[in-house]
Amino acid sequence: LFVCWVFFSGMEKLIVCAHKRPNALCRLICFPWAGGGTCQLAHWSTLVSSSIEVLCVRLPGRETRINEPFAKDMTSMVNEVTSVLLKELQEKPFAFFGHSFGSYLSFAVALHLKEKYGLEPVHLFSSGAHAPNSDAMLSLKRLPVSDAKDEEILEYIQKIGGTPPELLHNKEIRKHVVLTVKEDFRVLQTFSFEKAETGTPLSCDITCFNGSDDIPHDVQAWQELTSGDTSFYKLPGGHFYLLEHSNEIFLTKHITRCIENAGL
């Protein structure tokens, strides 16, 4: 059983760090998918180089924050992550990894850090997501998720995978998973980004990962969001390809190499 440990007195709620590495050259901040918790990505600390410390963001309404109200919008999520992590992000280089909903949240946080504090990740890793400036993203925001029935959300969750079926057999857990996915998706639909307002907002390299059997994602538009290099990789599997051990190994090795080559 993998245990997620927390660290830093002011960060217990928001951040999980399975292995503290105070001498690490860089921190990798991981942002989970809609309805997701922290253990899967926090576990990456056992797979990356010892030069990297892995932190995973825990959002309200789940795990030890299960009794907290869900975030109302993307801005409040971004503000919480930024305010809690700011000191750590100022003291050493950092990179972001986000999957699906987490990809959009990580980009929104990166944008806010650049605009308000002049801080930027050394690398942004996006997984299972459209570019925030793509037409596909606009279509995503128009989906009537708030009006969807629980049965429809449950069917979607079962279709894309990522949630152990045995959890969904429990009525209370199933109800909470459905609610969490619905609330995270509602937050996503409050995210507004217009590239024209900012020009090219980032200068870091961006790498996009996707599952070969997932729905096609509009990823090419990520190139318009940075003056750095943009790379694209497809790995075998569906939307939750990253939970396959062989893909985890590829992802963590590639991410380690990218960070170590960033000239820290």
Automatic annotation (TrEMBL):
An annotated GO BP: medium-chain fatty acid biosynthetic process
TM annotation in the entry: none
Protein name in the entry: S-acyl fatty acid synthase thioesterase, medium chain
UniProt keyword annotation of rRNA-binding present: no
EC number: 3.1.2.14
PANTHER family, alphabetized: S-ACYL FATTY ACID SYNTHASE THIOESTERASE, MEDIUM CHAIN, THIOESTERASE
Family of this protein: Belongs to the thioesterase family.
InterPro entries, per database record: AB_hydrolase_fold, TEII, Thioesterase
Domain Thioesterase: 27-250
UniProt xrefs under Gene3D superfamilies: alpha/beta hydrolase (3.40.50.1820)
Alphabetical list of Pfam families matching this protein: Thioesterase
